[in-house]
Amino acid sequence: MPLTKCSLANNCRERRFGLILSSDAPIDCPSEPGDLSSWIADQALSWFDQHGRRDLPWQHHRTPYRVWVAEVMLQQTQVRSVIPYFHAFMRRFPTLQALASADVDDVLAMWTGLGYYRRARNLHAAAKILQERLGGRIPRSLEHLVALPGIGRSTAGAILAQAYGLPGVVLDANVRRVLTRVHARTFGGSVPEAKLWQLAISCTPAIRPDDYAQAMMDLGSSVCRVRIPNCSACPFETRCETAQQGDSALSSSVANRSAKVKARVEAIAYVVLTLDGQVLLERRPEKGPWGGLWAPPECLGTAPDWIRFASAHGLVDSVVVAQTRLPPLTHELSHLRYAITPVRVRLGSRSEQIPLPAGFRWHGGYRPKRFGMSSLALKLIDLAEPDSDP
């Protein structure tokens, strides 16, 4: 359905309701019927009517809470990875009140394997704030949304659009890539952040802002892809400056967006300590990778040394039944590659009488997860499985 063009200044200000924090903020109001920003919105909505995703789980029984949880999960994570976690999270925490009253370990447990665990901690912290200060209501303004932990400008825009039908402006990685390519000649080699936001604001329509936001995110993820964009399927092809400049411009765009910073390699050693089918876990420091999550403890140094580890943690009186050097592992984060050397140490039953240091606990692998662990921790725990000797 074609958009009703915004021709009056007050209507233009209404279009940008989702991002304007001050009534004195300048408005760059397009007025020409052939304006590129309005054309982008029209084309995006027409494309969405034919190809857009309408069957995502958070689009059913849509509530501000479900939209908020989904948008946080979708930060730096693909839709197909989020869907099973979203279903499980909603079963465990069906309401904001349920999330706010939960223990943070319960929340992290439901996040195990999804990555970027600070998102879960921020989600839980924000839920407590909303429950205590706003009676469990999620704000309808950008200013109040971005004041919450874990909600940035783009996530707030997505919540405004998807939950409330307000023209909140989304500028995630997918939308950023689409707009940058469409305006490649205008921007040149680099795009100022403020200019990109101004452009995103000008394109966001007052009518169907939720469908427009979803359309732009879908176009970026499925058509205007990072490495193999499908220009012939893109509704913007005829006015896309990158597409009009030909293959060389597109190749340059792909190369610029695909360039990755070389990951730094860090050597680390772990002790997988088992006792009667349980694995010893340590809560990691709040700051740093996997902050606040549980994992088999690290060794001091880069090589596993049981004697040194036991001395450092008051476990020298433990009875060691078997000690096995395990094959090395690698684990990658966005900026780090860990070269991991693990050792499995099996203790005798008398060792359970030795008190554990603060921040340690035993975890029975056969029991359901009750606290948060990274995917690396799960890999290390899996290494305890062969340890079934009597």
In the CATH classification, which architecture of the largest domain applies?
A: Orthogonal Bundle
Give the class-level CATH name of the largest domain. Answer: Mainly Alpha
Question: Which structural category fits the helices and strands?
Answer: alpha+beta
Q: Write out the CATH superfamily name of the largest domain.
A: Hypothetical protein, domain 2
User: What is the string of helix and strand elements?
Assistant: HHHHHHHHHHHHHHHEEEHEEEEH
Treating each run of at least 4 consecutive H or I residues as one helix, how many helices? 17
- Rg, Cα atoms, Å: 25 Å
What is the CATH fold-level name of the largest domain?
Endonuclease III, domain 1
Uncertain residue segments: 1-34
Rounded mean pLDDT score: 81
Total count of strands: 7
Strand content: 5-15%
Query: How many separate structural domains?
Result: 2
Major sheet characteristics: 7 strands, mixed
What helical percentage do the residues reach? 40-55%
Q: Separation of termini?
A: 70 Å
Broad shape: elongated
Compose a concise summary of this entry:
The protein is of the alpha+beta class and 390 residues long. Helices cover 42% and strands 12% of the residues. Strands 1, 2, 3, 4, 5, 6 and 7 form a 7-stranded mixed beta sheet that branches.
